[in-house]
């Protein structure tokens, strides 16, 4: 009987603690609520370089960036840097988004050269929305720029695509050259791992169950190390890599607390601070990101956070119509053979443009999180 009473008291204490923690989190959100767009713009009041990291191919994440472009311009931020285009074609990009008319076909044909399997409409829309902003402000001396960050990707090269360069160092160098050296502020949009600033990603070998250290040279790490307080990292909500490995099902961020809190709201689109807020102390016990850390909390991982939709409401990115053409089909087939997909390389042009295998549905990554 005494053991039962003790166990009951423990359960009551735990529930009270969770209730208090949840109440504190809700109070913080209610007091500081901002839409994702408002939140990102507000961070430029105290920072010059906002890194925003995504999981990839989540429709509403790219749509957020599209919404932000005109707001950035209105607030005196004239540069968006993106991982999803090759720096090799920067001169062309600059000319296209300031031209009297937007030539989407010309952009696509050049975009393809370094992004053979990234034929997604919303990512390509970034350039057209930037062009529309410049068109609407044609009498202004300030022109909005989209700065491509990506290095050349050549998987057919002997030794592999990254034999002669580190993509993070390359992208950081582009930021320094095209943005920092010109004293411009910028929103920098990339995959989540490239966007890390203060957080050092574990170098973990899952097969050997061994931690070899921490990566300190991600794109955002490099810029943060030289500019410190001028940088700010925002993480976009998505599944996290599991502590069981890269191929294991993704897990809910910080043990699902953020998802649980957001289930209490009908309007779920919000941006909020992590550092110096109750969200900063949330822990993760089942993710790859916590490996090697004695006490992993969310404020070690990012400075701010954006939540838009529950996983059950995620939508896939949209295929760009006719991204694959008679002119580039041979280059695509060569690319696929070089990355180890010789069977797919034999597909017809129609199948390339229509197949779900070509355009990955991100919901497949999160089906287990959609309950």
How much is the average pLDDT? 92
- Beta-strand proportion: 5-15%
What's the N-to-C terminus distance?
Answer: 37 Å
Name the shape in a single word.
globular
Number of strands: 9
Give a structural overview:
The chain has 371 residues and is of the alpha/beta class. It has 14 helices and nine strands. The protein has one domain. Helix content is 38%, strand content 14%.
Brief rundown of the structure:
With 371 residues, the chain is α/β, with parallel strands linked by helices.
Helices and strands in order, then pairings?
Blueprint: H1 2-32, H2 36-43, E1 49-54, H3 59-74, E2 79-86, H4 90-96, H5 104-111, H6 121-136, E3 145-150, H7 167-178, E4 186-191, H8 192-195, E5 201-205, E6 210-215, H9 219-227, E7 231-236, H10 257-262, E8 270-273, H11 298-301, E9 304-307, H12 329-338, H13 349-354, H14 363-366
Parallel strand pairs: 1-4, 1-7, 2-3, 2-4, 7-9
Antiparallel strand pairs: 5-6, 8-9
Helix pairs in contact: 2-3, 3-6, 7-9
Key terms for this structure?
single chain, 371 residues, alpha/beta, seven-stranded mixed sheet, two-stranded antiparallel sheet, disordered N terminus
């Amino acid at each position: 009987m005494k053991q039962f009473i003790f166990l009951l008291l423990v359960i009551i204490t735990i529930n009270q603690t969770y209730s208090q923690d949840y109440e504190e989190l809700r109070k913080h959100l209610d007091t500081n609520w901002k839409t994702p767009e408002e939140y990102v713009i507000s961070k430029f009041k105290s920072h010059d370089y906002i890194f925003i990291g995504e999981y990839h191919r989540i429709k509403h994440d790219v749509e957020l960036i599209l919404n932000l472009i005109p707001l950035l311009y209105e607030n005196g931020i004239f540069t968006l840097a993106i991982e999803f285009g090759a720096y090799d074609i920067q001169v062309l990009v600059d000319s296209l988004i300031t031209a009297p008319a937007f030539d989407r076909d010309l952009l696509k044909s050049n975009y393809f050269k370094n992004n053979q399997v990234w034929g997604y409409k919303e990512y390509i829309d970034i350039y057209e929305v930037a062009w529309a902003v410049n068109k609407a402000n044609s009498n202004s001396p300030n022109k909005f720029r989209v700065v491509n960050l990506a290095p050349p990707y050549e998987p057919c090269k002997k030794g592999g695509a990254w034999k002669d360069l580190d993509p993070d160092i390359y992208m950081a160098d582009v930021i320094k050259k095209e943005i920092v050296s010109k004293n411009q502020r910028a929103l920098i949009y990339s995959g989540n791992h490239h966007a890390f600033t203060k957080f050092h990603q574990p170098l973990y070998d899952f097969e050997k169950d061994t931690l070899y250290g921490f990566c300190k040279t991600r794109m955002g790490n490099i810029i943060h190390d030289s500019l410190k307080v001028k940088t700010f990292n925002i993480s976009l909500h998505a599944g996290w890599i599991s502590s069981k490995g890269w191929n294991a099902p993704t897990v809910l961020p910080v043990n699902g607390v953020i998802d649980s809190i957001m289930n209490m709201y009908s309007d779920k689109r919000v941006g909020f601070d992590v550092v110096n807020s109750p969200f900063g102390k949330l822990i993760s016990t089942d993710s790859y990101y916590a490996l090697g850390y004695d006490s992993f909390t969310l404020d070690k991982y990012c400075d701010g956070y954006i939540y838009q939709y529950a996983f059950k409401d995620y939508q896939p990115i949209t295929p760009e119509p006719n991204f694959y053409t008679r002119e580039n089909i041979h280059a695509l087939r060569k690319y696929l053979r070089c990355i180890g997909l010789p069977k797919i390389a034999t597909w017809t042009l129609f199948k390339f443009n229509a197949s779900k295998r070509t355009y990955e549905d991100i919901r497949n990554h999160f089906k287990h999180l959609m309950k």
